[in-house]
Each structure stands twice: as structure tokens, then as C-alpha cells.
Amino acid sequence: MAGLLTAAGCRPLAQPPPRAISLYVQGVRAYESGDRERAVAVLTRANRDNPNLTMSRALLGDIYKSIGDYRSAADQYEQATHLDPYGLSNHYNLAVTYQLMDRMQEAAASYLRVLKLNPDNIDANMNLGLVYLSLDDYESAATYTGRAVDLDPENPVALANFGVALESQDKLTEAATFYRRSLDLDPSSATTILNLANNLLKQKQPNEAITAMRGVASMSTDANVRKRFADAFAMAGQLDEAIREYAEALKLDPRHCAAMNDMGRALVARYRTNFEMDEEMRRQAVLYWRASLTINPKQPKVAALVRAWDRYKP
To answer: pTM (2 decimals)?
Structure first.
């Protein structure tokens, strides 16, 4: 379409964009170039010039969230959602920010707003389920993580999170099924492998737990993973392997009280299988328990073990 003409037959001069828009564009360019400090300064000026500039507030919220300033990010997203109540992304980003701030009730309310706008949003369903999990509302957690699975049955994260929600309801067999389905799609997920192993130990299936963990545990630098691997060996009665893995866990974290305590128990169990002949093994068990009590004296059961086995005479 041809441009309009003035009464004199001349085209009007192009008008410069409003100052706030110009500042927003400068902020976008600064952000895209990696200059976050300038982007924040320019976008803040844009918001002062036009407090109703939703896109400027949204981008400023994104920048604050990316640098870990969640309080400032939430402020910007809150204002953006008031300006545009139907903007799904701002509600979602606000929910994520509340979740990062451990403001779970507010996070749940924001995720519900997202789902009112789009019930099929997979991430909102999944995250809402995790929020309810943290609030100990296990039924709601299973409902929403289950919806995420229904929406995307091949999503390994959704499957694993649904497993966690089911396990929170003590549905151990069902949870293990979803952990395994998740691992079929993503065999490298150490978190899911550990969740499956913990689940199998709860079901008193230590050999299956050992099989599930063997690959990831042998390469892990996480003391908790090595300790859990040792627990599986101990439950299976493979005491030498358990002692070896407790030692690996303590190399990674020398102040890991639970590993010290269970190392002591494994040593005593091994001592007893040797007809209580190896006094050094019993002595080492007591030393581990004493070291644990030095770190955390409020362990009456461990103190009782020290009293029982330090005075023990074969």
C-alpha cells in the first residue's frame, strides 16, 4: 500500500521510536553481546521511561535470573505478569524463580496459572509435580508428573520424576518400572541410576542394586554414591566388597559419618565371619565409630556400639 501524503503532497518525515523502545533495543543488543551490566542499566532506564513496557521487564527478569539475583528477577516477572496476565512465558519464568527461591506455595500458584493458559505444557506439569513433592503433597506430585509422562511418554526426565513421585507414595515396584523406562532412553543418568538402586535396596534386592549401580559407581567422585554402592554389597553379604567401597567413599569425604558407621558395622560382621580371630579388624571398627562420634557426638546408637565392642573379649 502506498504511503499517505500530506496536504502539500509530500510524505511525512519518519518519526523516531519512543525513547523507551530505543533503550530496550540497546539493552537487547548489550545482552546479546554479553555485556549484562550495560544491559541491566539500559533496561532499567527503559522501565523508568515506560513502566508498562512488558518486554523490557521480561528481559530484565531473564538477566537477573541468569546471574542468580532471584529476588530482582521475581520483581520484574511479577510486574510483567500484571501488565500481561495472558503471557504464558512470564508466568512460567516467575514460577521457576519462586521455585529457585524455595517459595514453593507461590511457585505452585504460578505453575497453575501457566496450566490454565496451556494445560499441555510439559515442563509446567513436571515442575509443578516436583513443587508438590517438596510440599509433601505426594498425591498431587504423582498427578502432575504423571501428566507430563502422558504428554511425552519418551521423555526420560518426565519418566524419572514420575518414578520419584510414585516412590514417595511407597509404590516401589511401579516406581522402579518408570526408573527403568527412563534409563532405557538415557542410560547415562547417574541420578536415575542412584534412584533405582535406592529403590531396589528398599525392596531388599541388593544384587539387582549392585548390577544397576556398577557402571556409574565405579567412576563416581560422589561419596554418597560410593557409600550407597557399599550398602548394596553389605546387604548382599559381600563384606569385602562393602569394606572396599566404604573406604572409597571415605577417601572422597573423610568426614562422612554414615560411611564411617557402616564401615564399622561391616568390619565387625567380617570379624564375626572369621570366628572373631582378627582383633585388628574389631579395633578398626571401634576407631571408625569413635571418629564418627568426634564429628557428631549425638549418635546414641553408635556410642552403644563403641561400648559393646571396645570392651569385647573373645
So the answer is: 0.84
- Using alpha carbons only, give the angle 269, 271, 272 rounded to the nearest 5 degrees: 65
Q: Are 231 and 201 in contact (CB under 8 A)?
A: yes
pLDDT digits (tens, 9 = 90+) for 12-51: 545 556 899 999 999 999 999 999 999 999 999 999 999 9
- Taking the C-alpha atoms of residue 131 and residue 99, their distance in angstroms, rounded to an integer, is 7
Cβ(189)–Cβ(156) below 8 Å: yes
- Grid cell at residue 196: 533405582
d(CA 87, CA 80): 8
State the first-to-last Cα distance of the chain, in angstroms, to the nearest integer.
103
Q: How far apart are CA 280 and CA 271, in angstroms?
A: 9
Residue among 273, 277, 265, 195 nearest 235 (CA): 265
From the CB of residue 45, how many other CB atoms can be counted at a distance below 10 Å? Answer: 16
**Whether 143 contacts 129, CB under 8 Å:** yes
